[in-house]
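User: I'll paste a sequence; please echo it back and then give the predicted structure.

Assistant: Echoing your sequence first, then the prediction.
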Amino acid sequence: MATSKYSAGIHAANRLLKSMPEKVRKLYLDERSKNPRLAALKTRAREMGIPTQGARSHRLDDMAQGAAHQGVVIELTDLPNIDEAALRASVESALALGRKPLLLILVGVQDPHNLGACLRTAEAAAVDAVIVPRTRATGLTPAARKVASGAAEILPLVTVPSIARALDWIGSYGIRRIATSDAASDSLYACDYRVPTALVMGPEGDGQHK
């Protein structure tokens, strides 16, 4: 699952400049646009010492890979790779300190917009990490980053070769595993999250497999 180094969109740019300017390497702005919001972004970035560069619309289209860039594409600094071993170490440390990890496991999400929405919601819900399979799932594309509105730069996204094996070791730590379903009788919001929990969400359409 390849990771893109670009995000796109005015909202994403504003949030990154406000909350995570150290993750912004450069802004590419539509050189023909008269949009005052883009001009404000350019001024703000330069005041922060972040380079800006004019670009033709077709080049922005290429970098954004289909995302609605609104005249701005953000080049991100290299993000650290987070692997399964690092996640296990983080979970072990949290449990040893008495913390209650909250994990989100996404099984086979194909739509980058859905991945971005899951990341945005997970970050707002104080999820500690999101786990996804290495294959048969969408990557962290510019479209996913745009919908995530900065959450993709905050929240650890961990790719694993096998969701089943990850669920096994997560359960071995005493972390409660909950599979979600739109046909379930119990509400997700009624769960007690004062205990370590992993929420498992299936892909669009066919949902969880038994």
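Helices lie at 10-19, 36-47, 57-64, 84-96, 112-124, 142-148, 163-172. The longest helix spans residues 84-96.
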